[in-house]
Design a protein that fits this description.
heterodimer; A: 414 residues; alpha+beta; six-stranded mixed beta barrel; 14 helices; 53% helix; B: alpha/beta; 35% helix
């Protein structure tokens, strides 16, 4: 027998008393882990949903000047044109990708069915920036499609379902404004919470030059820009504003001459909000666990009192303070370990089971915020730290009190 | 070996103070068998506690084996109790949740002795007190005499030179009491120093010398 084994044999004889406390710890652990997992899941889901629109994306739109400039009056409309894409790319080295986009609400028909959808003209780079991942067996527009003005189309999964049902549309003809195109790819289902003109599931994308044959407006609706680094988004935005101001003659600071949708800045704000929610949920969980820890402290104080005489005997036969502290501490750790172990296992399984629930992509994947809790290293580190502190605090005070006992008074205690 | 010089012990409770020992000087040589007698409240137990390093005197000097006890820390006192002194109490003071074996083993665990040495010593002691068959039983399953024999075995676990017995037969029938006294006498003959508190002249007759206390002072 060793000292820890002796401690264990003494503990075993009273473990029933710890049952309720064990449950409190179990419940606390379950709460803290589940709340943190849901918080983390929401944060991740926000990132996933946001990247459904695009990753590190800045969108530039035309507008109307609100300030006079070099003798020109305010109120002039500012439009963007296809050549602006190369103009900006050549002058702003921080730009990684850039693509023009024009769109119009047009008639789309195939298979004897006719619907009206927003049809877009753009380039291959658009696909990479806007997370246009094709379903197996298809592809997004490529550089050759754009350069040669090929009559091909990439369609959203809802468009595919509306026109072709469950059949694979790839390779099949589709007529847009009475001009035939061939479907080359269908967008894979994705979660998307930010959008203009509706979700990507309902859109049709054509090579830019092919689109211009349907819609002969010269000006484009917007330009998509991806900086090399997300951290450069502010610089890129400022440079683009200045360059366009020089070209179209407006004050660069004029907020209404052009407008920007800087998703990088939006994402930062969104992440901060979700991080806040995550921490808040974690705190609630920690408070629940704290109740369990207070229970343990209470139990250990009671045990210390109850064992006064035994402590006296141990001191009389030569136990050092350290031994008494060790015993109380180990018992605390053990009570904690037992409760938290089951809480841990349960939380892990609950999260696993919830994650099996399907997500409806047609409602923008809103359920995903609640149905995709997840664990991360960060959660385990935070949990272990909180647990460690609570366990130490609830063990140390009863242990110290027990160890400070006066041997004679303890021996007399009945 | 045990040398008490002008020992005073004062207990203070609030504004009241009680002088339990008043300038006691006692010398106990190595291998002596001493009885301490006296009426209730005469300071017998207090004296025993001080000799046993469970308590420290308010004033005076206690030298044990040429070491001054006054300067020792709590843990150093624990080590002295562990290695040099074996305690036998009137009400046995065995740990209720531990078996006979575990109770005897515990002082050696506190001393950090290795497993084989502990096993050998516990076996030896259980055989010596004739309770080897009862090694797996808890105190509540043993008779008073058996419990006191286990307590004696525990007191001897680390082979201490001094045994302190506080009314060792007080809670026993006369036959069990005689058995315990026989063991104590044997231990004394083997060369151990034995200090025993008792009310009973018959029991005190086993010892070589009796120190009588009255009102915190040695009277004879």
């Amino acid at each position: 027998m060793t000292l820890p084994r002796f401690f264990w044999s003494e503990y075993r004889k009273r473990r029933k008393r710890a049952a309720l406390i064990t449950f409190a710890l179990f419940w606390g652990t379950l709460s803290i882990l589940l709340l943190m997992a849901f918080g983390q899941g929401m944060t991740t889901q926000f990132q996933v949903s946001f990247s459904g629109l695009g990753q590190t994306l800045i969108m530039v739109y035309g507008g109307q000047t609100s300030l006079p400039f070099e003798g020109l009056p305010k109120g002039r409309p500012i439009s963007l044109y296809p050549e602006d894409v190369d103009y900006l790319k050549d002058r702003v080295p921080e730009i990684l990708r850039i693509a023009p986009e024009s769109y119009n609400f047009l008639q789309v028909s195939a298979n004897g069915k006719e619907i009206n959808r927003t049809v877009h003209g753009t380039t291959a780079e658009f696909g990479l920036m806007r997370t246009q991942v094709p379903r197996m067996g298809g592809r997004f527009l490529n550089a050759a499609d754009v350069a040669q003005g090929r009559k091909v189309a990439f369609i959203g999964w809802k468009v595919a379902a509306d026109l072709f049902g469950s059949a694979d549309p790839v390779g099949k003809p589709i007529v847009i404004n009475r001009i035939p195109f061939t479907v080359i790819g269908v967008l894979q289902k994705k979660i998307q919470d930010s959008m203009y003109n509706g979700p990507d599931a309902e859109q049709v994308y054509l090579p830019f030059h092919a689109y211009q044959q349907i819609d002969n407006r010269r000006r484009i609706n917007q330009i998509h820009i991806q900086p090399r680094e997300a951290s450069q988004s502010k610089i890129v935005e400022a440079r683009v504003r200045t360059l366009l101001g020089r070209k179209y003659r407006f004050v660069p600071d004029d907020r209404y001459a052009t407008s920007f949708w800087n998703t990088i800045e939006d994402a930062k704000q969104g992440q901060a909000i979700f991080k806040g929610i995550e921490i808040f949920l974690g705190l609630i969980g920690a408070l629940t666990l704290l109740i369990g820890a207070v229970g343990v402290t209470n139990l250990m104080y009671a045990v210390a009192k109850e064992r006064t005489k035994e402590i006296g005997v141990k001191l009389a036969i030569g136990a050092r303070r350290r031994v008494i502290i060790q015993q109380f501490f180990l018992e605390t750790v053990f009570v904690f370990a037992k409760g938290t172990f089951w809480g841990f296992i349960t939380a892990f399984n609950v999260v696993h089971i919830i994650r099996l629930a399907p997500i409806n992509y047609d409602s923008f994947g809103i359920e995903a915020y609640l149905l995709r809790p997840e664990f991360s290293l960060q959660i385990f580190v935070a949990y272990t730290a909180i647990l460690g502190v609570l366990c130490f605090l609830s063990g140390i005070f009863p242990a110290l009190r027990a160890s400070r006992a006066n041997p004679i008074e303890s021996l007399r205690y009945e | 070996m045990i040398e008490l010089q002008d020992i005073t012990k004062v207990y203070r409770t609030g504004s009241q103070s009680l002088e339990a020992l008043r300038g006691i000087s006692v010398k106990i040589g190595k291998g002596e068998f001493i009885s301490i007698m006296g009426p209730s409240g005469s300071g017998k137990s207090t004296l025993m506690n001080i000799i046993g390093c469970l308590d420290t005197p308010t004033a005076g000097e206690y030298v044990l084996d040429s070491d001054k006890v006054a300067g020792l820390t709590f843990d150093q006192l624990a080590a002295v109790r562990n290695r040099k002194i074996g305690f036998v109490f009137q009400n046995f003071n065995l740990l209720p949740y531990a078996t006979a074996w575990e109770n005897i083993e515990l002082p050696m665990l506190f001393d950090g002795k290795n497993g084989r040495r502990r096993r050998e010593r516990v076996t030896e002691l259980l055989n010596a007190v004739g309770l080897y068959e009862w090694r797996g039983h808890r105190p509540s399953e043993l008779s008073g005499g058996q419990q006191q024999r286990i307590a004696l075995a525990r007191a001897l676990a680390n082979d201490p030179p001094i045994l302190l017995a506080d009314e060792p037969t007080g809670n026993l029938d006369s036959k069990s009491g005689e058995e315990i006294m026989a063991i104590l006498t044997d231990l004394w003959r083997e060369g151990r120093t034995i200090v025993m508190v008792t009310h009973n002249d018959h029991i005190a007759a086993h010892s070589e010398r009796t120190i009588r206390l009255f009102d915190g002072q040695v009277v004879a």
